[in-house]
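How it folds
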Amino acid sequence: SGWCWRLFKQPAENALQYMTDPKFMERTLKLPGAQPLEVLEAVYKSLVTDKPRSWEDCVVWARNHWQCQYNNNIRQLLHNFPPDQLTSSGAPFWSGPKRCPHPLEFSTNNDLHMDYIMAAANLLAQSYGLPGSTERSALTKLLQDIKVPEFVPKSGIKIHVSDQELQNANASVDDSRLEELKTLLPSTEAASQFKLCPIDFEKDDETNFHMDFIVAASNLRAENYDIPPADRHKSKLIAGKIIPAIATTTAAVVGLVCLELLKIVQGHKKLESFKNGFMNLALPFFAFSEPIAAPKHKYYEIDWTLWDRFEVKGIQPNGEEMTLRQFLDYFKNEHKLEITMLSQGVSMLYSFFMPAAKLKERLDLPMTEIVTKVSKKKLGKHVKALVFELCCNDETEEDVEVPYVRYTIR
């Protein structure tokens, strides 16, 4: 799933940000180390060098990517560290956890090779809004006409031999290449004509090629290192981070949950009527305890717990949305609370120490407009309510703890 993210999600997301966010370049150049160069190289590839215009282009890209990953990179590795390489202490370099790899030779008669090309080409087509194909015979014919550049070992390539060495290495930034990329990238107006769709990994759809790609890619890498291949089921467990569960345990948990649900339906109000359950079917062990009441807080004479909240309807009877001024007045009049700070997520929407000019600008803006402006993120059409956190003073100007606000907008 990591490869899916690096190939078909992250580059497309960065390219989309480049096209739509005016501050993307400025923000990228402030990244530490070699990250600016890596991000801009990926954007350049997405919008220029790797951009396919047809299904055939997707197949060419997939074939070259296969060659790079499973042949050229391995041959370069063996060029830097030959099979008979010795360490400074005279011990074999390729020993213990370091398996000596071998390059693979592509063949259209190898089902695993063809699975990789089919999945990779279709995923690339999906990310650029192009039609894909599942015709294996037509794919074989296309591949026979593709000429792959011959591998030539590169000199001066530094390959880190351990994770620690990689972390300690100071990545040198090629400033001239960085400047070149800034001029080579297409204008945002021209780039905006491209259709790009970042691909989110979904393991349970058997028709989207996600698991096909992951199974083929991981088993090809395993073959490089003479590691036994994994079947689709095992690959799905690993890629989907699925925790195996025994059906009997799940059934027992569901049974206990249903018992508690029945108590709610029957109208039980006393906390001691409900039970927490603990079990281990292997022993077997069953234990029950009474739940602990949620801690109580108080403002004025009103008790509240973490289950409570203020419900505020953002849309008023006249159809207009509540402004910040009206929101502050609502709490002052309805709850006798003076809001000193108001936030949504990590965005500070209002504070008593806010500069006067900024406060004047925000007071008569609708709440959702302030959220969008401060967070720099548009609210999706699926968003029906927002959660606001408050800091308040009571009528004696003492700090009081209050519940959060559920602000409905649809």
Q: What stands out?
A: Residues 55-80 form the longest helix (26 residues). The mean pLDDT is 89.
